[in-house]
Amino acid sequence: MDLESFKVDEIRLWRIKLEYREPFRTSFGVEKCKETIIIGLKSGDYYGYGELVAIREPSYSYETLDTALSIFKEYFIPLVLKKELNPYVFYNETSWIRGHPMAKAAFEMALWDLHAKYLEKPLYEVIGGSRKKVEVGVSIGIQDSVDRLIRRIEEYLEEGYRRIKIKIKPGWDFEVLEKVRREFPDIPLTADANAAYTKEDIPRLTNIDKYNLLYLEQPLYYWDIYYHSILQRKISTPICLDESLQNSLVTEAAIKMGATKIINLKPGRVGGIIESLHINEIGLKNNTPMWIGGMLETGIGRSFNVSIATLDNVKYPSDISESRRYYMKDIITEEWIMENGFMEPRKEAGIGVEIDWRYFYKKVLKEWVFR
Ligand SMILES: [Mg+2]
Hints:
Layout: E1 6-7, E2 10-26, E3 29-43, E4 46-51, H1 65-80, E5 84-85, H2 87-93, H3 101-119, H4 123-126, E6 134-135, E7 138-140, H5 146-159, E8 164-167, H6 174-183, E9 189-192, H7 202-205, E10 216-217, H8 226-234, E11 239-241, H9 248-256, E12 262-265, H10 267-270, H11 273-285, E13 290-292, H12 299-308, H13 323-326, E14 342-343, H14 357-362, E15 364-370
Parallel strand pairs: 7-8, 8-9, 9-10, 10-11, 11-12, 12-13
Antiparallel strand pairs: 1-5, 2-3, 2-15, 3-4, 6-14
Helix pairs in contact: 1-3, 9-11
Magnesium ion is lined by residues 192, 194, 217-218, 242, 264, 293.
């Protein structure tokens, strides 16, 4: 891989808040707004951007906006500002910091964007992506009623999404799947529990095979591998781990233990693009395909996901919806759109999107500048 080093002259952090078009409900809560931190790195005439996927509360993971801010200020900014580096230097020099993968990923991604812009190549090419377009699926939050869910599925199928994922939890699971399957017997369907079940539910979860799902996503504890491997032996539906796959080492262990047959790769959750590339390799070597998961990103984070979804081990539709699905208006000038169930990575250098600065600054809660 071509590795150009560069000096970062200025770092900006923006805490922003964007309203979702509608609240997103999962087994662990309801989100009404996207509050996140966008990172801007300047090097000469080049600008690179990254986005944090942590949320306000430590519900999806222990990381929050505030834990990330503290890591940025205390460790990453002193490491990056005025230094000659590239994404690999950053990866190596932050490897002593335990945890905080979302904070690491946000910074590393901004460095990748800058790096690709230096090379004047689109990011997906720089990281070795081989697909020219990316297959897209949709993840539907828990709805007020099954009828509403069915209407939703109809709408998304009409829009062209190539896989439907519904969120399940105890009390909103088999009956719902039953009705959905009755309505749509053949669609590519998956169910995501976001770790809502316990090992005591294993006997009940064996019913999942009736619904012909592409896979069952993260049924058990968010850190578990062992009980997932037990469950996998009792069902023919492949398990796809999400929350449990914290990095490339855990992913390899989970595959070898038989706890996961499919990988949900969230670059933010595993610590960035370099870890994602490792996971791509591990998946290929172990015949375990993957897809890219979403964290309701703005157009910036979405760009990274589209680029990473061009990697060769991505063999299932990824959760990369159109911008308009989540936001009344995205913070980028040209929103992400889907055509016939596919999205194309941008041809411009880096992530290839421009921030709509006038709109962006209306959404900024706070800005920090480091020079
Ligand atoms: Mg998930």
